[in-house]
Specification:
The chain is α+β, with helices and mostly antiparallel strands. It has one domain. A hairpin with a 3-residue loop joins strand 1 and strand 2. Helix 1 packs across helix 3, helix 2 packs antiparallel against helix 3 and helix 3 packs antiparallel against helix 4. The longest helix has 40 residues.
């Protein structure tokens, strides 16, 4: 039986390698969200005229090609402000910086909160890309009951919302190391 020995330098490198692996995983998740979002938006633009739709589940869900000049779920889309687009781009860039820094600093282990931040990062990048290069965001997921419609949204919006729920869930329900219950099994 062979025994492998590690130098102190190699032992110290192993946790660092895990740290970088978690960081890479988070940024790969964000990239996957960005690519999925952009691909689905491209499919919609290529295959559906603006405001055209097709039913997927009658009286509940359809795919509808919508261009959104506002924020997520059409917020502020009717605002006449000439600064609206610039403000949304600036806000998105600020959010990207904050989320990226949080992911960079807190990548020592894989967590649901980190996964949520990765989803938020990918979603924010997807919608920012659209705003910068097209002046609007393509939305297409259209849920409704009768005449009541939820505002159309896209993969990026979905990732941002799911990521926010995961992040809040981890904040609210994660046990802290100072919590005596966290050490109980």
């Amino acid at each position: 039986m062979s025994s492998t020995t590690y130098s102190p330098k190699q032992i110290g490198a192993r946790p660092q390698a895990a740290f970088h692996a978690h960081r890479k995983a988070y940024f790969l998740i964000a990239l996957a969200v960005l690519l999925t979002d952009q691909f689905t938006k491209w499919l919609i633009v290529v295959n559906l005229l603006l405001h055209d739709s097709f039913r997927v589940i009658p009286d509940f869900f359809q795919i509808t090609h919508v261009e959104n000049q506002g924020a997520a779920f059409g917020l502020f889309s009717d605002s006449p402000s000439i600064w609206k687009a610039d403000a949304l781009i600036l806000f998105s860039m600020l959010a990207l910086v904050v989320v990226s820094v949080l992911l960079w600093k807190n990548s020592h282990r894989f967590t649901w909160g980190g996964f949520g931040l990765a989803l938020i990062l990918g979603g924010a990048l997807g919608n920012l890309w659209d705003r910068v290069f097209q002046g609007h965001v393509v939305d297409f997921l259209d849920f409704y009951l009768g005449n009541a419609h939820w505002p159309a949204f896209n993969i990026a919006d979905s990732a941002i919302v799911v990521g926010a729920f995961l992040l809040v869930g981890e904040i609210l329900f994660a046990k802290t190391e100072a919590d005596p219950q966290s050490n109980a099994r």
